[in-house]
Automatic annotation (TrEMBL):
<feature type="domain" description="EfeO-type cupredoxin-like">
    <location>
        <begin position="36"/>
        <end position="134"/>
    </location>
</feature>
<dbReference type="InterPro" id="IPR028096">
    <property type="entry name" value="EfeO_Cupredoxin"/>
</dbReference>
<keyword id="KW-0479">Metal-binding</keyword>
<feature type="signal peptide">
    <location>
        <begin position="1"/>
        <end position="27"/>
    </location>
</feature>
<dbReference type="Pfam" id="PF13473">
    <property type="entry name" value="Cupredoxin_1"/>
</dbReference>
<dbReference type="InterPro" id="IPR033138">
    <property type="entry name" value="Cu_oxidase_CS"/>
</dbReference>
<keyword id="KW-0732">Signal</keyword>
<dbReference type="GO" id="GO:0046872">
    <property type="term" value="F:metal ion binding"/>
</dbReference>
<dbReference type="InterPro" id="IPR008972">
    <property type="entry name" value="Cupredoxin"/>
</dbReference>
<protein>
    <submittedName>
        <fullName>Cupredoxin domain-containing protein</fullName>
    </submittedName>
</protein>
Length: 135
């Protein structure tokens, strides 16, 4: 009965050097300017917002970079959000406008169907929503 147990001592020295990786915060950089494929034409979509609808409510564009020009033709503040259909995962959003104001934002969309809506108060439920079809 010669139990001979060797217990190798594994000494793990974990040198944790702090700092270094500072996680970049939320989205903020909206300039993926490294695309080499030439964009044929810059697409611009103008949407008029009133109480309570988007005009036009149906937009069709080609995949790529699209600039949305928004005009608040109503009496209330309005904005615009874009997300893949059925979700609220914004891929683009505009600042809130005041009555009579305008704003614009640029978004890159892949082929698919997207919802767009005004996120002010319950404007979406009141009709300020539409569909973007990207081909
Ligand atoms: Cu609105």
């Amino acid at each position: 009965m010669h139990r001979f147990l060797l217990l190798p001592l594994a000494v793990l020295v974990i040198a944790a050097c702090g700092g270094g990786s500072s996680g970049s915060g939320t989205a903020g950089t909206s300039a993926p300017s490294a695309t080499t494929s030439p964009t044929p034409t810059a697409q611009v979509v103008t949407i008029h917002e009133t109480e309570f609808k988007l005009d036009p409510a149906l937009v069709t564009v080609k995949a790529g970079t699209i600039t949305f020009n928004l005009m608040d033709d109503g009496k209330f503040p309005h904005d615009l959000h874009i997300a893949p259909k059925g979700t609220t995962n914004d891929v683009g959003a505009a600042q809130r406008m005041t009555a009579g104001g305008m704003t614009s934002f640029t978004v890159t969309l892949q082929a698919g169907t997207y919802d767009m809506w005004c996120a002010v108060d319950s404007h979406r439920q009141q009709g300020m929503q539409g569909t973007i079809t990207v081909t």
